[in-house]
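Section 3.1: Structural characterization of target chains.
Under the original work plan, the team committed to producing a structural model for every single-chain target entering the pipeline before any wet-lab resources were allocated. The record below documents one such target. The sequence was received from the expression subgroup and is listed exactly as submitted; it comprises 358 residues.
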Amino acid sequence: MSRFWSATVRALQPYVPGEQPKLPNLVKLNTNENPYGPSPRALAALRGELGEASGENLRLYPDPESSRLREAIAAFFGKLAPKQIFIGNGSDEVLAHAFLALLKHDLPILFPDITYSFYPVYCRLYDIDFQTVPLDDNFALRVADYSRPNGGIIFPNPNAPTGRALQLKDVEALLKANPDSVVIVDEAYIDFGGESAVTLVNHYPNLLVVHTFSKSRSLAGLRVGFAVGHADLIDALQRVKNSFNSYPLDRLASVGATAAIEDREWFEQTRQAVIRTRTAMTRDLEALGFEVLPSAANFVFARHPIHDAEKSALALRQRGIIVRHFKLPRIEQFLRITVGTDEQCAALVAALREILRA
């Protein structure tokens, strides 16, 4: 710990990202990356931007408003205007700006006790008071638990790392119960089975919905995220962004993301493939005795009644398969397993069958 560190940095407990090991022949099921490649149209657009003629443009700053991408996102959802969309360098940056712009108030903000572990990190970074709200015994969010004074509410839907989704009618009930608080719905995994709250944006000025291109668009390497909400909320995010980094999205990321969201056919094809594989993998894990929580994401959350999760994760790793294990209260016996290709999931199940028999 350096003597030059600020008091804020000394107190931080940074977010720990999923491991990115460089091992040969690895079956990587730990960070919820899409097993299928990006849209061919996105790849073609990126190659064009890097061509001899357009490559000259890289000496110029990108559009600080990401106007073309905002228009494409508005067109994808329909009944939205570009002014209702905010673009950031990955959804984590969008969330970080939202915490500072919309959730820093006198009252504590609320989020589930088992959720995306970046939320408490942002709170400590920005000195935001917070309270965690326990999920029920089935790891589901109870809307009634959020009917208390608060400075804002945030939760992933589907939740991470559990994968459970809240129905749209319940999201709306939560919004109605908290008209004076901003409610942020983090929909990183919504395209794999849930109902998006984007359809509610024009009816609730306190709703902000956050999306990413990392999961269902297979563009984790480009770092593109966005938020959808009332123009007043978007303006608050813009004010923070322009006080931090006026050019968060580079030219390549903007071009690739625009092409990706315009390729509806590839999006539908690949997300349906993930959903089918998730169903098959869930069935196979249950046949091995695992309890698998209902998942609307591109991962499953599973535990075995007899076999220790940490030991199982280590045994899988020794066989060249990595999954995510969280040493946290209530979920220390669960494994979070990304939905890979059919072949990757078959290798996982075969390895687990061998481990359980040992």
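The two ends are 44 Å apart (CA to CA).
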